[in-house]
Amino acid sequence: MTDLELLSRVTGIFDPSVKRMGGLRRGGRLLLALPDGKEAYSKALRLYQPQRPAARMMVAALEVMSRFRLHGALLSSLNPKPARRNISPALPDIEPGACGILLGSPEHRVRRAIVSYRNAGDWEVAKVAFGNEGAEVLEHEAEALKELGQLAKGVPGLLGLHRGNGVTVLRMPYLSGQPVARGESDSAIALLESWIAKNTPQSITQFPEWSAIEDALSETDTGRAVLAALSQHVLAPVICHGDFARWNLLHRADGSLMVLDWEWGHAGGMPGIDLVHYFLQDARLVERLKPSEAIRSTIGKLRSSACQAYLAKTGWSGDAILPIIACLAYKQGAGHQENTEVLEAALLV
Fold first, then answer.
1. How many separate domains does the chain show?
2. What does the DSSP 8-state code read for residue 176?
3. Is residue 178 classed as helix, strand or coil in its secondary structure?
4. What is this structure's pTM?
5. What is the mean pLDDT of each run of 10 residues along the chain (349 residues)?
6. What's the pLDDT at 94?
7. CB of 159 closer than 8 Å to CB of 151
8. Mind giving me the DSSP string for 65-105?
9. Same domain, 125 and 238
10. Looking at 173, 207, 230, which one is the last position of a domain?
11. CA distances from 70 to 19, 53, 73, 237 (A)
12. Domain-terminating residue out of 141, 173, 205
């Protein structure tokens, strides 16, 4: 599915009347489709939360230029060809011309999009995925939002799950707020501490993540030795997000922290995975550190008093490399992220 085909399919669900949108491109591909209206444009632009300075400057420029109606100079002209696609339950009250679309990467196993729009007077955001695998992803996220919203702080509300014609739509409230700044971790660690369950601690081998960790580590002598060391741990269950990175966190005006994208979220998860992922993702994707450097950077972050307190509360003791390896092995074994090089680097520490 090309970018324009994806755009046309999504507009066919949310705004079949649309004729023209502004396109923000990056690296030769369409990243964001923006509507003309001032408020709708602003809502759509905020779907994109870049981490690198150049991209942040570009988004800031688009915000400023829009006040003077000059932003079109940085945007291409898009002419989607939407065909109406019905979903159930229907969404009959979406305001025409208010739809903005962030297109998912074509590298994702399941092609998807994120949409901002006004429905019955309220701003909402929806995740859209296609095919049976896309349906499974969003159905799992909907179940996670329903279950975990009753157990944990920081979980968005669920407005509805819609299906039809090979498409699945997950609706949530549009959440305004500020991104978490680079280098900031105190609020994120505090939220992770609030997710520690009061359940009795259990052997690490009883956690749902263990089988994926075994799959990733059992092929080599070094991996099997680490598995033996890991298997001695008794840990406290936690709410596990699965992709706990800065760009999935949002500071709300009331001081709370909201966490987005719960596709891999579940209760009774292994502690430490979200904490390690928070620092490793920055080191790998933003700082672009080499695998060994990313591991050393993350070890240094985990030695902070706040991280040490969290690790102690959840049962991790001793060398900080063990929760790092557990996180990398889980993400690798579960197929969430390609971690071969950085996992090998961690095993050599």
1. 2
2. -
3. strand
4. 0.91
5. 89 93 87 92 89 76 76 84 89 94 74 93 96 93 95 95 94 93 94 93 97 96 96 97 95 93 95 98 94 97 96 91 97 92 94
6. 95
7. no
8. HHHTT-GGGGSEEE---------BS--TTBPTT--EEEEPP
9. no
10. 173
11. 20, 22, 6, 52
12. 173
* Whole-Å CA distances, 187 to 24, 181, 320: 32, 11, 21
What does the alpha-carbon distance between residue 314 and residue 292 come to, in Å, rounded to a whole number? 26
**Which helix H or strand E contains 298, and what residues bound it?**
helix 291-302
Structural domain of 128: 3-173
* Residue 309: alpha-carbon gap to chain centroid: 26
**Cα-to-chain-centroid distance, residue 104:** 11
Q: Copy the structure tokens of residue 239.
A: 């709410």
Residue 134 and residue 246 in one domain: no
Q: What angle in degrees, to the nearest 10, is found between the helix axes of 186-194 and 305-314?
A: 10
Instruction: Indicate if 237 and 331 belong to the same structural domain.
Output: yes
Residue entry with tokens 């923000």: 24
* DSSP reduced 3-state for 17: coil
CA angle 30, 33, 37 (to 5 degrees): 160
Residue type, 56: R
Q: How far is Cα of residue 87 from the mean position of the Cα atoms in its chain?
A: 25
Q: Are 138 and 127 in contact (CB under 8 A)?
A: yes
29 and 157 inside one domain: yes
CB 209 within 8 A of CB 334: yes
Instruction: In whole angstroms, give the CA distance from residue 138 to residue 216.
Output: 26
Distance from C-alpha of 3 to C-alpha of 11, rounded to nearest angstrom: 12
Structure tokens at 326: 């557990």
- What SS3 state is found at 148? helix
65 conformational bin, left if phi > 0, alpha if psi -120 to 50, beta if neither = alpha
Distance CA(185)–CA(308), nearest Å, equals 13
Q: DSSP of 226-294, one letter per residue? A: HHHHHTT-EE--EEE-S---GGGEEE-TTS-EEE---TT-EEEEPTTHHHHHHHHHIIIIIS---HHHH
pLDDT attached to residue 146: 96
Largest CA distance in the chain: 63
For residue 98, give the amino acid letter: A
Provide the pLDDT for residue 167.
94
